[in-house]
Amino acid sequence: MAGKRDKDRRLSKRSLFGTQAFINIHRQKRFSLSQRNIETVESRGQSGGISNSDTDDDQIIKSVMGSIALRLSCICHNLNLVLNHGIKLWIKPSHNLLDSTADVDEVFIYYNNYNESNIESNGNSSPDDQEEIACTYDKEDVSSDDEESSEEEQASTNENVEQLFIYSSSILFRLRKTIANVKQSSVLQSFVFSEIKKQGLKLKNFSSDFHVRWNSTFLMISMIIKAKYVYNKITQDPGTIDGLTEKQVNKLKKLALLSDDWKFLDILHYNLAPFFEATKFLSTKNFPTLSSAKFVQNTLKNFLENESSAKCFLLQPSPTVERENMLRASLLKFIKVYFVEKMSTKQKLQSLLACFFDPRTNECLTEKEYQEAESKLMKKFAKSALRQYPRRSTHTNICLQNEQNYSRSDMIDSSNDVQFHVSPEVPVKRKNGFAKLATLCGFNLCEEKTQSKRNIKEELSFFNYTIKAKTWKFDEFWYKYENDIPMLASKAREVCTSPASSVRPESSFSVANFIHRKERSNLSSRNLRYSMLLKEKS
Fold first, then answer.
1. pLDDT per residue over 396-414, tens digit each?
2. Are 228 and 262 in contact, with CB atoms under 8 Å apart?
3. Are 58 and 77 in contact (CB under 8 A)?
């Protein structure tokens, strides 16, 4: 029955594409929604209507869904774009490096002439904007009174970053090339398998990555670092391996990594680890929510902005330290591009409120964001706050003595911008003697279940206090306090039920840039490999 109900909720996808694709899709969606008595943009945000929709970056789909409801950019696509543009894992290496090892199957090296221009941007970006982001930094990123000096510094920074990408791509190219050689040689496969077994490593064999799933690159790097001894044995001293030809030996020697290369590989692995964990965090059974998206954004931003979290933080200035700083700066730049600049104001507000309402992610908000969320809610319910609620009598105020106006600043150190804060102690329960004395003196204490309605300011005060009392689950908290803070509960229900991704999380990184291609339906091994449902099993 569950499967049948899910099927009934799906909007059918018929043969709608053609010269009038937008009109056909728009009519079909409107018709399907009307059959289900679902109102569209006219009742946006109201009960029974669609408040928002989440789609990928197909221009036609974006236009159609934008005319029906507020369109939210996909968190999974944004994260994929940050990695592809911010670190350029798939930039094409130099021609000299390609020519030196031209005999290896290209599918393992560059995956059929992958081009970053195939990656589509989110939000309101145009193809020209995307190309500018993919190739270089914008000229407006650095502002200074001395324009000439600013331009020189910017040009120098761009050149250094491009050199970093070239250096990084050359290392990754050698890894992919070595793995390709191992897969093509039964002698090398047997040697690698036996060495892995001798070292006691929890690896089956060497495996490469492919560009439509960026976190496979992290897994490849992690695997090579674990099998560093085996890799060095293959590339630095391949002549000791029986069965290899002289040509194969010469090829493998060109793929060896130097000491600085291994240091940079460690740095790359270290700084990609939070992004890999973010991917796992988003890969749950259900669609990721807006609060999850905001949590991922804030934690990654905090990691990259905090200099003490860098792997080389305590080391003396060196080329390795400089490379890590440029790498982190590039990732931080594109997090701001895709999660701030190119994200609509309405989506940023929705994400902020969803994160505010979710007890799991509430503490990841900065003091400024927390105050902004409270301010937006105060304005949202300004009319409700002016309604004539029953004013509390003197005896009612007694039961609110423990409901002090706890503000965010009372619970955290204002010197820290981003902290994960400690919850306050739960107040001591009122003793029976206190209640008896108050009753004898004419103060009738009200119970928690019979409290009068609160205005928005009192609801925020109650929310700030109760959410810190213990570690809550989202559904547990709102199930218990839904009737105590009805205005906040109604807004939480609206913003926290919106998905942050338009695709199933398990496949969000396996078909991210391949989904629009007609070749995805071809039954070739390569296309099937790209379209498979891939997820790590712990």
1. 333 333 333 444 444 433 3
2. yes
3. no
